Amino acid sequence: MTEQQVQWAEWAQITSVPLRQENEVGEVIAAASGCLIQYRNRRFLLTAAHAVPGAHWAILLGFNAAANLFEVYRLRGFNAVAVTKRQWVELRDIDFCFEEVGPDVDPVFEHRTPMGVFSEKRLRHVFTTDLTTSPRAGQMYAFSGEIKAERHGPDWVSTSVTYPGLRYTNSNGEFHTFQIPVPHPGHESFKGCSGAPIVGEDRDAVALVLTGDEKENTITGISLSFVKPTLDLYCASVPSPYPAS
Fold first, then answer.
1. How, if at all, do strands 197-200 and 205-213 pair?
2. How far is CA 227 from the centre of its chain?
3. CA dist 182 to 27, 125, 161, 218, 219, Å?
């Protein structure tokens, strides 16, 4: 990789947003990833519907050293999406959901383990986008996420992973497929990355991670341009509960 591509891969590390689900006693029971976008002067969290079942989900904002605890932004509830054909005779769920969040939701990236902190704090990226970018051949793509999330006292411990070097291969309906540059490490290695943005060297997001194919050595994501009409309809029909940012 060139120096410019190395810098891009480091940036890709901060493009996903960690999501955590807790039970009634505060234990982490599930983890996923999401993507923050600024769209039509409103801020949205986007993710994969299959990755965030049930309730009690939150965005992990970062560690507050003064209070010795992790701060979270508790989500009210995701908006699910379906498409219809043949005048409502046929209805199909889409593996995508979203929630409008406050304009001041700015999570930070920090690599923490029980042994200490091993990186400086960096604001996670919020994409200012028109949701029209499509992947193209010849450009490199990447995604990132945090896997194996656990809570140890005040600390949330996870393994941060970044996968650069993806190459776009084809699209089918709302799905984009990308070739992985290394042998597929198995689904457990990606668990927690569902919902993360797939980003190009132009530093725009084109899809959200959905699933992988070990045999074909690929990753498939849902196209962000496909879900643009859903967000357009939401913005036109639902007043924002937050001041414009």
1. antiparallel
2. 14
3. 34, 26, 14, 10, 12
160-to-18, 121, 165, 178, 188 alpha-carbon distances in Å: 10, 14, 17, 21, 14
Give the pLDDT confidence of 118-148 residue by residue, as tens digits. 567 899 999 999 999 999 999 999 999 887 7
Q: Which fold has domain 3-237?
A: Thrombin, subunit H (2.40.10)
Q: How far is CA 235 from the centre of its chain?
A: 21
pTM here is: 0.90
Residue in this structure with the two tokens 């091993």, named with its chain if needed: 118
Domain residue spans of the chain = 3-237
pLDDT digits (tens, 9 = 90+) for 97-119: 999 999 999 999 986 555 555 56
Distance of CA 107 to the CA centre of its chain: 12
pLDDT confidence of residue 161: 84
How far is 224 from 161, CA to CA, in rounded Å?
Answer: 22
Q: Are strands 57-64 and 17-22 parallel, antiparallel or unpaired?
A: antiparallel
Match 């990606």 to its residue by tokens: 190
